[in-house]
Amino acid sequence: MSTYSGLVRTRGVARIIAAQLTARFPFGMLSLAFLLHVERIHHSYAAAGLVLGAMSVGQAIAGPLTSRLMGVWGMRLVLSLTLTLCAASVAVIGVFVLTIPATMAVAFAAGLTMPPVQPAVRTIYPKLVNSRQLTPLFSLDASAQEIIWIAGPVVITFVSTQVGTIEGILMSVALMLAGGVWFIASPEVGRVRIPRSKRRLGSVLAKPPVMLATITGFLLIGSCAAIEAGVVATFGEGSPNSGIVLAIWSLGSLLGGLLLGGIAISPWSLAKRMAIVLVGLVLASLWLNFWWMTATLVIAGAGIAPALAVQFAIVSSSVKFSDTAEAYGWVGTGQLMGAALGSALAGLLIDRSGSIGAFWIAVAFAAVGVLVPVIGKRWHPDLRGRDASPIPDTEPVQVLPS
Fold it and tell me: Is 385 left (phi over 0), alpha (psi -120 to 50) or beta?
């Protein structure tokens, strides 16, 4: 823990972590807010899953594009424009009663304009700390973001079930605007300039570690999205138990990230962390009881933040600094496509087989998520004794003696 205490004392680190967590806090609320709101209006989890899927697809398309634009227009301009448009789209879903196709279209627009806070902050991190501190900082970040998934589900479930789903969505909009403005105004956002990439859009995916992180993230977050839908369906719309279970699940992820964050990253690290997730989900699917699910999802959660931290580290160590934002955008796209597919499949199986269907989907995603890094082990950087800093854009040229 001394490593983390030293990190937060580094100038700017605590401030930028707090600002980006606040800016991203509504993202831990919107999925459940939309799920509860759409199900209440249309009485269908499949419809709610389609809306969530549409939002995630929009985010997936926007991820690498808005991330790359930050190197052209600057972080503050891109973040400000997307924040304004996204907040307006989310508010429309809450205020107006729309058909399912119309709701999907607006949700797609909200996803398409979701502020690229995550790629921005992970591009800033290498400029705040030295190379030895970067991997622990990724672990701290992955763990700290679980605060979003601990408090977010509890808050939105309470407000949506006890006050109203419209109020829950509008509260998310208010937090999105407040947090986004704080992050955009942070000095670190203004000081770091992302160089304009000289490579074609998408060429960074030719890096095997980036593709490995993207595919594994797709499977991990797809599994998480299915579990979220399954937990809500298990306890019903009016029960606060779903928020409590999801919050404790995220607490397991936070603790896992902090405990495993100091372990050196080897070529087997990603597969091992995904295996922890798989074991917990298999156990959770055996008995859909509140206490059993709470205990077993803590096990599953203990692998989530560590797996994300490994993904961030192997991407950072494999690309040039000018390509880091786009690379993280593609990783985010993989995660969001996983969320879209996981939510949609879970919603369909919930309507056909009950809440256990969502758990089957989650286990299937996690099982493939273990297999992929095992097969891709040769592309997984060995960071034992190495730092995770991006490759410099300008490197010294060796001059041979005449």
Answer: left
